Amino acid sequence: MRPPGRRDVPSARPALPLLLLLLSPLLLGAPRGVGAGSGVPAELRVRVRLPDGQVTEESLQADSDADSISLELRKPDGTLISFTADFKKDVKIFRALILGELEKGQSQFQALCFVTRLHHNEIIPSEAMAKLRQKNPRAVRQAEEVRGLEQLHMDIAVNFSQGALLSPHLHNVCAEATEAIYTRQEDAQFWTERGVDSSVFEALPKEQMELPRCGQVRDQGKPCVCRYSLSLAWYPCMLKYCHSRDRPAPYKCGIRSCRKNYSFDFYVPQRQLCLWDEDP
Ligand SMILES: *[C@@H]1O[C@H](CO)[C@@H](O)[C@H](O)[C@H]1NC(C)=O
Ligand SMILES: *[C@@H]1O[C@H](CO)[C@@H](O)[C@H](O)[C@H]1NC(C)=O
């Protein structure tokens, strides 16, 4: 039975029909994809192998009008990871919906949002993403390249109600994480220099730097520094170019896939908001 007041973890969005299924490995289709350029995101669903060997489904959506890409995958433990790249605003958003363990008295799920600067060479352009097709949707894909772990220290907060000033995606993506949206001073500075209103950003308590890691704190009510790590198991990180005798210049003919781990350190006002961080 569902306990009263339970909120369901949002599931991956339903698939849009794909009109074109082109070659395998993934290639860029010459014709424009479903909805590309018409305001309806094009979606690709791929099966990916996680580092621990398990297979999960990943959904990749591209909206070339909004110039954005989003990626969503569910980990075997039920955690839903999503990544949004907003090329217009140089913003990327990571969101984790972490399922609580009911027997430990935890609430249904906990949401975290990490917002950092998007560099345009981190992932392929949205217009190329919208054209990606696969011939064999059952194929299990594994990233061709493993990129190094990126460790980020999230030292300021984002005010959810002002979030649209930073990226129009923030309101949807971080709706469950209103009290837990983090970014970095250096990213905030980059965006404010480009005209984003500084009211988006909020200082965290000054002592945050000196606090112990949550794994070392016993008192559930005490503030501490929490760490959350996530993995983008498979994403198209670069375009591949081919040469042909019929064409004067190299042309885009596919993608290179990458896997990358991120680890975020951030302030929590209470140890109990970081239950996964065990004694290291
Ligand atoms: C990346 O994360 C996955 C799952 O979280 C883990 O199994 C793997 O060892 C990590 N790899 C690196 C290079 O940190
Ligand atoms: C967030 O911004 C709104 C509007 O400026 C403001 O009223 C509110 O107090 C801010 N929230 C926090 C937690 O500072």
Overview of this structure, please?
Keywords: Signal. Belongs to the OAF family. With 280 residues, the protein is mainly beta. It has one domain (18-274). The protein is 6% helix and 40% strand. The chain is built from three helices and 15 strands. The protein has a ten-stranded mixed β-sheet with strand order 9-2-3-4-5-6-7-12-11-13. Strands 10-15-14 form a three-stranded mixed β-sheet, with no helix packed on it. The protein has a two-stranded antiparallel sheet with strand order 1-8. The structure holds 2-acetamido-2-deoxy-beta-D-glucopyranose (2 copies).
Brief synopsis:
The chain has 280 residues and is mainly β. Helices cover 6% and strands 40% of the residues. One 2-acetamido-2-deoxy-beta-D-glucopyranose (NAG) binds next to loops.
Number of domains: 1
- Strand percentage lies at 35-45%
Mean pLDDT, nearest integer? 85
Supply Rg. 20 Å
Strand order across the biggest sheet? 9-2-3-4-5-6-7-12-11-13
Distance between the termini: 36 Å
Query: Fraction of residues in helices?
Result: under 10%
Hetero groups in this structure are: 2-acetamido-2-deoxy-beta-D-glucopyranose
Gross morphology is: globular
Largest sheet: 10 strands, mixed
> Uncertain segments of ≥5 residues (pLDDT<50)?
1-25, 30-37
Number of helices: 3
Overall number of strands: 15
Order of helices and strands: EEEEEEEHEEEEHEHEEE
The secondary structure category is: mainly beta
Keywords: Signal
Domain Out at first C-terminal: 213-278
Protein name: Out at first protein homolog
Domain Out at first protein BRICHOS-like: 43-191
